Amino acid sequence: MKQLLILSGKGGTGKTTLAGAFIKLAKAKAYADCDVDAPNLHLVMEQSVAPKRTDYYGLPKAVINTDQCLQCDLCRQNCRFEAINVNHEYKVDYYSCEGCGVCEIICPENAISLKPAVAGELVLYADETVFSTARLKMGSGTSGMLVTEVKKQMNLVAKDAELAIIDGSPGIGCPVIASLSGVDMVLIVAEPSISGISDMERIIKTAEQFQTRVAVCINKYDTNLVNTEKIESFCKKINLPVAGRIPFDSNAVKAINSALSIIDIDCTSGRAAREVFAKTVEFLFSKS
Ligand code: SF4
Ligand code: SF4
To answer: Which atom of ligand 1 is nearest to 74's Cα?
Structure first.
């Protein structure tokens, strides 16, 4: 299975819109939303089956049995995450606890134990196509591990799919690093703004660490032609292919607000997305 990951250095570049268009154009039998902090690919990809939901357990959390606690204060003094509060009795702050287990070891009364904690849910839609996604619970810090589970879930169920399209997270944090592992190609959606160029350069550097193919496409290119040309020259300088330009298109917003993809309607961005898709597939399946 070839895996194409779509990334952007920041949110709001149109990454998910393009991912949705690509999934439809490819008639992809497998796809995933790895933006576990704010998944929204399901909003543009209509599903015909009910999802299977599975609790995802991240880091365990410490729990104090107040009946056994003699208030010696050792746990509070040794918790480097300042997760233990005292207000008449000793309590662990759920959101601050990193599950390191120091307090459990140090407590002379064995009053502390680590308990499994639900950090989110994995969601799987599976009929003739497989769509794997997840949602991280507020305050849970294991987004990278959850992304790995999303991909694992997709790979297990869609073993025979020729192509998988993955919508990644914005930025360069843990979920992006986790989504990069094992993919065949990364398409970076860049915006022609000063911050867009800087974010693009950072995500290119990150993707290159994984020795995967990288290509760039420029969304809303006509909002700043000078910067669009800067992006193209930069890519040329470092031998990175440019898969194309997509214009700003108010019809794209209308399509998204009606839960449609830009390729479901006749619009300039949809036509450009088709060309970018064809180029991307050419790069993905080419030998060199
Ligand atoms: S280390 Fe144990 S006994 Fe001491 S305050 Fe903490 S929970 Fe209570
Ligand atoms: S498990 Fe670690 S982070 Fe959590 S309360 Fe205990 S010492 Fe603090």
So the answer is: 1
What is the residue whose two structure tokens read 């950072």? 202
Residue 89 beta carbon below 6 angstroms from any ligand 1 atom:
no
Query: For residue 82, how far is its CA from the centre of ligand 2 (angstroms)?
Result: 8
pLDDT digits (tens, 9 = 90+) for 152-186: 999 999 988 999 999 998 888 888 999 999 999 99
The answer to whether 140 touches 119, Cβ cutoff 8 Å, is yes
Nearest CA to ligand 1 atom 4: 72
To which H or E segment does residue 5 belong?
A: strand 2-8
| Residue 23 tokens, joined | 């999934």
CA distance from start to end of the chain: 18
How many angstroms separate the alpha carbon of residue 31 from the centre of ligand 2?
37
Q: What percent of the chain has pLDDT over 90?
A: 74
CB 221 within 8 A of CB 195: no
- Per-residue pLDDT for 258 more than 90? no
Average pLDDT over residues 58-74: 95
Q: How far is the CA of 98 from the centre of ligand 2 (A)?
A: 6
| Residue with tokens 């440019």, as numbered in its chain | 242
Domains by residue range for the chain, with CATH? 2-57+120-285 (3.40.50.300), 61-116 (3.30.70.20)
